[in-house]
Write a structure and sequence with these properties.
Layout (H helix, E strand, L loop, with lengths): L2 H34 L3 H15 L2 E9 L6 E7 L3 H7 L7 H8 L4 E3 L21 E8 L2 E11 L7 H45 L4 H15 L4 E7 L5 E9 L18 E3 L4 H8 L3 E3 L20 E8 L10 E7 L7 H62 L5 H30 L8 H16 L4 E5 L2 H4 L2 H22 L4 E8 L2 E8 L11 H12 L3 E5 L6 E8 L5
Parallel strand pairs: 12-13
Antiparallel strand pairs: 1-2, 1-5, 3-4, 4-5, 6-7, 6-11, 7-8, 9-10, 10-11, 13-14, 14-16, 15-16
């Protein structure tokens, strides 16, 4: 062999050694870069970017396997633009060639992926791909996901060295993923502990049930990075659930324009839904794609549903039997599924939340008992003291009236006696209402009106002023009382949504053969071109019972709504 040939061969070997050295150096840099991160999302992104760079692949992807071990719950790509991803459509679920690496977690190298028996072809708008390298990523003894690389630049095939490099990277990636998950788990545990403490503090400070429910939902939504959250509670005497609180990550619950608007108050069947399954089983239920798993019927006209992805329904209970409610969390499509590491603290949090709700109910019951005892005392004092004194005064006036010679004076004394009789009737009616209120299955109109006004305080941002006058619990027919409460709820809801008022007053008066409900506010008034469907409903409701509904605009601004009906109305 000539000297120049030996020199050429030596140069080739030197170039190979340098290439190997550079590649090992690049691999070490990639391992360090991947291991430096503690945020799991960033770790996954760095892994797929490093893999594509190390083997000079035009396209790369990392598929995270879902809890069922059969489908991909997350799919991160490199080499595709956002426009190309949007044109391709839904991300792959793990069928075809991608599923081959899932079902057989071993390195797979192909010179033409289209010729493989498991290849399904590409969807529309997908760029053509030829060469393929797939390598599983293991975290301890678990296959976490797979690296997919296609189209080595220069039209070359992936070789054994490429496979070795990516396999080595996958080992380092598994360690990095494990570290990131442990770190995130510790961080979440701290957040859960703070949330539990906040809920307990809110409960001890006397916060009402709706505020506690919202706090539970909001904290769970923040800690799990969920886009959508709601809490559903069992329906009394039924086999379904009703959504008591709902919120979308885009805005506050009940706020105009958010996806949560259509969910509040929604009745949810137990059969075929995540909520129902969790409620009946008393344990969490997960789904990779919530709406494909029958959480709600496909025909339900609810906005925002199509953009939601992995979901989990967690019963609010301490174990055993049916729950006191269900907390549903859903992430956006493409986000990671809820893993086992997230479920355990979430279940513990739900148990604490259930205890908080039970304590709130027990405290409410104790307050109700104390209130009833106070009512009994007031009723007894009115009967034993006020009525007896008024009755004695009336008897004295009647006796004195016979001794009065002046006709006008005698007539005045007679009217005073009549007034005393009417006052005694009102007091007796009040005593009856105090002693029967909240003890029967159907509370009186006074209690229902007070409850409706109290419930509206949260939505309004301040408690409305309430005044009630007359024999509301005895003289108002039940059917008319139902219409009054419905009208009151509609007017308070309108004030909260549209009036932007800082002061709302409610007056309920029964007397002179009619009941009159007046709701006033200092808000913006009714715009000339505003929607009036709700006002028409109120007018029709009044007409149904032979009454009227009028809207007035006081001189100082705001609005005054007057709804009235005759007390003789029975329908």
């Amino acid at each position: 062999m000539r000297l120049d040939e030996l020199l050429d061969e030596l140069q080739v070997r030197i170039d190979e050694v340098r290439g190997t050295r550079d590649r090992v150096h690049s691999l070490l840099e990639a391992v360090v870069s991947v291991g430096r991160e503690l945020d799991l999302a960033q770790v996954l992104r760095r892994i797929v970017e490093a893999a594509a760079l190390l083997v000079d692949a035009e396209y790369g992807a990392l598929g995270v396997i879902g809890p069922d071990g059969r489908r991909l719950a997350q799919f991160l790509t490199v080499g595709l633009t956002d426009e190309e991803i949007a044109a391709i459509g839904p991300l792959p679920a793990g069928h075809g060639l991608l599923g081959e690496v899932i079902h057989h977690p071993e390195p797979l190298r192909l010179t033409d992926l289209g010729a493989h028996s498991s290849s399904y072809g590409f969807p529309a708008h997908h760029p053509p791909m030829r060469t393929f390298l797939g390598v599983p990523i293991r975290v301890r003894d678990e296959v976490f996901g797979n690296l997919y690389l296609t189209d080595k630049r220069g039209g070359l095939d992936f070789d054994t060295e490429d496979e070795t490099v990516i396999s080595t990277l996958s080992v380092a990636a598994g360690v990095a993923i494990d570290n990131a998950r442990l770190y995130e788990g510790a961080q979440r545990q701290q957040l859960w502990l703070r949330a539990n403490a906040e809920i307990t503090e809110s409960l001890l400070s006397g916060s009402p049930r709706p505020a506690v429910l919202e706090l539970i939902a909001r904290r769970a939504q923040e800690i799990t990075a969920a886009r959508f959250v709601h809490i559903a509670v069992p329906v009394d005497g039924g086999d379904g659930l009703v959504v008591e609180f709902a919120a979308d990550g885009a805005g506050e619950a009940g706020e105009a324009g958010t996806d949560a608007v259509g969910w509040q108050g929604l009745a949810v069947p137990c059969d075929g839904t995540l909520l129902g399954a969790a409620h009946r089983a008393g344990e969490p239920v997960t789904a990779l794609r919530a709406w494909e798993d029958g959480c709600y019927p496909a025909e339900a006209p609810l906005p925002g549903r199509d953009g939601l992805g992995p979901a989990v329904a967690v019963p609010l209970g301490t174990g055993g039997g049916q729950s006191r409610g269900v907390l549903l969390l859903s992430r956006s499509a493409g986000d990671p599924a809820f893993g086992e590491g997230e479920l355990e603290p979430l279940v513990a949090f739900a148990g604490q939340a259930a205890i908080a709700l039970e304590l709130a109910e027990r405290r409410r019951d104790a307050e109700q008992i104390a209130l009833l005892e106070e009512r009994d005392r007031i009723a007894r004092d009115l009967h034993d003291l006020a009525i007896q004194r008024l009755f004695a005064t009336g008897m004295t006036l009647q006796s004195a009236a016979r001794l009065v010679d002046h006709e006008g004076a005698a007539e005045r004394v007679g009217r005073a006696v009549d007034d005393l009789d009417e006052t005694i009737k009102i007091i007796r009616s009040t005593i009856f209402g105090l002693r029967t209120k909240d003890r029967d299955s159907a509370p009186g109109l006074r209690a229902r009106a007070a409850r409706a006004v109290g419930d509206a305080a949260t939505a309004l941002g301040h408690p409305p002023r309430l005044s009630m006058e007359g024999l509301l619990d005895t003289d108002v027919p039940p059917q008319v009382a139902d219409h009054v409460i419905a009208a009151l709820g509609e007017l308070l809801s309108n004030a909260a949504r549209h009036a932007r008022a800082s002061r709302v007053g409610v007056s309920l008066r029964a007397g002179q053969g009619e009941i009159v409900l007046t709701v006033t506010d200092n808000g913006t008034g009714i715009p000339a071109q505003g929607r009036r469907s709700g006002l028409r409903n109120l007018e029709e409701r009044a007409q149904d019972v032979g009454g009227t509904f009028t809207v007035e605009t006081p001189e100082g601004g705001g609005s005054s709504f007057v709804w009235r009906a005759p007390l003789g109305s029975g329908c």
